[in-house]
Model the fold of this input.
Amino acid sequence: MAGKSVGLEDLSVAFVMEPLAAADWLIPGPVVFCLLVGSVLLMLRKRTDLQPLIAIPALVVLCAMTLGLLAHVVVNGTVSMTMGRWLPPFGISFTVDAMGAFFAATSSLVALAAGIYGRGDVDHSGRRYGFYPFLLLIMAGVLGAFMTGDIFNLYVWFEVLLISSFGLLVLGNERAQLDGGVKYAFLNLIATTLFLIATGYLYGLFGTLNMADIAIKATELRGTAPLMTLVTLFLLAFAMKAAAFPVNFWLPASYHTPKLVVSALFAGLLTKVGIYALLRILGMLFPVEREELSFIIAIVAALTMVLGVMGALAQNDIRRAMGFLVISGIGVMMAGLALGSPAGLSGAIFYAAHSMVVMTALYFAIGIAAQLGGSFMLSSAGGLYARSAVLAFLTLMLFLSVSGLPPFSGFWPKVVLVKASLDVGAWWLAAAILVTGLLTTIAVGRIWALAYWRPANAGALEQHAAAQSLPAGAMAALAGLVVLSVGAGLWPEPVLVLAQDAALGLIDPSAYVLSVFPGEVPQ
Amino acid sequence: MRTVIFRAIAPYLTSLMVLFSIFVLLRGHNEPGGGFIGGLIAASALAIYGIACGVEPVRRAIYFHPMGISAFGLFVGTLAGVLSVFAGVPFMTGLWVYPTLFGVEIALSSVLVFDIGVYLVVVGAIGSIALALEERDRD
Amino acid sequence: MEPLFALLVGALFTVAIYLFMSKHIIRVLMGAAILSNGVNLLIFTAGRITREVPPIIGADSDVLQASAANPLPQALVLTAIVIAFSFFAFLLVLGYRAFQKLDTDNSDEMRVAEPVNESAPPLGY
Done:
């Protein structure tokens, strides 16, 4: 135990002395809140009736907090809090810029939808195994990753969300889940270990882990230190987390096996955390090295999007087709990273937020369809339009949104990205984005034609007669996400401006640096 | 492993180890020790008791489900950080109070609360994995 | 000392990657354990290796004396060990459960989630 008399006369050598504003608590607030509620729910895991009653209001509060944080950041610029009052870079900073706040707000809306949907989808034994606690804990990991300003802390949040995702993945303890879970767990473990290796090298080179500090020091070290090696390692590790070709095979092997709401949550959030890390580290900290690698990233992006959608075309299981569409979307985001221009990065950020909402909603839609008596298999599904025109209509809107047709949210980021690629003369990248859009339209159009428009065959009809009515909570969750997608499509101006702000914050990190080190002159 | 000697010694060994783990936990701030290592010692104490006397008695002895212990630890650890809201300093700042009890000054801090949380998380998590693995051996 | 440790880290990585090539889950698991140890050693080495110099800043200076090892990588290693340990425990349980349910630890035969002869999607109504 420490003695009472501490010999430091001047506390300002080690401590942050500025008083805290109340709004600063919004910075660690969402993560802390998720941890608190998640642990309470874990203690109450036998009270399966109480869990949704606690979790869903908590998720509403979480959305309010992250939206408040987004508003705070939009008004006041990047904000930062350093844990334990230590002066940065010695304490771990939480630094929230426009990109982090935007992703945090979007992901908590998605989590709220998943919480509402999970009420109907997860049975009592699934709740006892911890669907709601793990949902909150995975949100703590995701939000922590979006908000932290420290690379090793980013690694820790990756592990938090990974461990929670393991728990969610094997929720039903079925054979296919264990099979998929093993592949998911091992390949993700290798990816995070690669990330750790890169972090170790980074500390060896820089002597700091604080992102703002790295942004300052990178300019001095450039040319003398093997930064290219380091950045390539980061690229590999995060591309693996984001499921970019050729390190994407864990995703189609596992994403169709868990409970549907878990698939939806994973498809919406997990790969986007990888994209976020790529944007943050390659886009903000090492822009020069990213420029060097941009051709390779562009090739990876083009291959990911085209091969992803071709995988979707070849699937009979709709859930697996959706998994491939997730991969295809990752390719589009990586194209923005490869371009690196303000337009390219803002397109990638917009597309990532769009993909969070739309991919989750798509999984919800096919889950409701399967509950209505259809099946996940294209060869046997049918008659869903006759069963519920509303569901068919909502699904069609999502399908058009994921293929990037106007007036839905997928359209605008694709326009931005195509224009940005043509601006730098990368016509083949623009062509890849457009071809991917066409192939996606074919893939989802076929799903809609076969599963929704095609009349149900006679044998299936008898089963349908006994099928239950539309699940209200699930439909509400689906409709809410569709409204978000349509809203962003019809009125894209605020989102475009926000994405533009976020991209400019990545390209010129001086605001980010200043929020961590007030008074530091940015270079 | 269920020899008479081992079964006779195991309860004493377990209680000694749990006591030692608490000692390690409490001295941990400035000397070697702390929540994590203390938790590991306590979890291995549970594992030893489980090997000697079976998993059921261990589950009865700790009363709460290990996952519940772990969750409570997480809750306590997070709450220790939240305490700094009331002091108006950033999250996770160490706060110290020095009450005097029977003429002895005792240093209490939010750091210690956090360490207790870590201890419980480790006991719960490692304990539940160890007990699950031991249970399967009996199948 | 550091070059020797670098060689050792390389050797550990080699062993781990060799084990990753195996079809058997249990070997991949051992590979993951060895890889995480290799990484820990790597970070540890990155913070200088010295003997018997405590990382204590004297009263007359503001920075650590150059001969002392940097304590931060050791703290990072500690965190990484904890995480790697819990991962290893979890993967052990997961692999064991998969072995019980699927009756194999050969990843070539683990095709429940991705069936071998999956039918192609229908080409028309």
Q: What stands out?
A: Strands of chain A lie at 79-82, 93-96. Chain A touches chain C at residues 152, 156, 159, 163, 166, 170, 173, 175-183, 185-186, 189-190, 193, 196-197, 199-201, 203-204, 207, 252-254, 256-257, 313-317, 378-379, 446, 450, 454 (CB under 8 Å). Chain A has a mean pLDDT of 86. Residues 23-516 of chain A form one domain.
